[in-house]
Amino acid sequence: MANSTAHTPQPFCFSTSLSLTLLTNRRARDLAELLAHLRAVPGSVIYFHTHHFLAQHQYLSPEPPNDFAYWVTNALQEDRLGEQLAAIDLIEFRTIRALRDRIIAVIESYLDERQQLRTAPEGEEFHFREAVSFIVPTSHVAHTLAEFAACMEQIGFGSLSLHFFDARLRLETGDNDFSEWLASALGEEALGRAVAGLDPYTYTLDGLRKEVVRLVRQRLAEDPT
Amino acid sequence: MSMLEQYEPFVGRGTLDELRLLGRHLHGRRIVTVNSTAVGGGVAEILSRLVPLCHELGVDIRWDVIRGGDDFFGVTKRIHNALHGTRETFSEHDYEIFRETTQRNLADMDLDADIVFIHDPQPVGLIAARHPQRGHWLWRCHIDVSAPQADVWAFIREHVSRYDAAVFSAPQFAADLALPQAMITPSIDPLSDKNRELTEHEIDEVLHRLRLPRDKPIVTQVSRFDTLKDPVGVIAAFRRARKYNDCRLVLAGGSATDDPEGAAVLAAVHTAANADPDIHVFELPPTANLEINAIQRASTIVLQKSLKEGFGLTVSEALWKAKPVIAGAVGGIPLQVTHRYSGILTHTVEGTAFWIKQLLNAPEFAARLGQNGREHVRTNFLLTRHLRDYLLLFLFLEHRGERVIRLQ
Question: In this complex, do B168 and A154 lie within 8 Å of one another by their Cβ atoms?
Answer without folding.
Answer: no
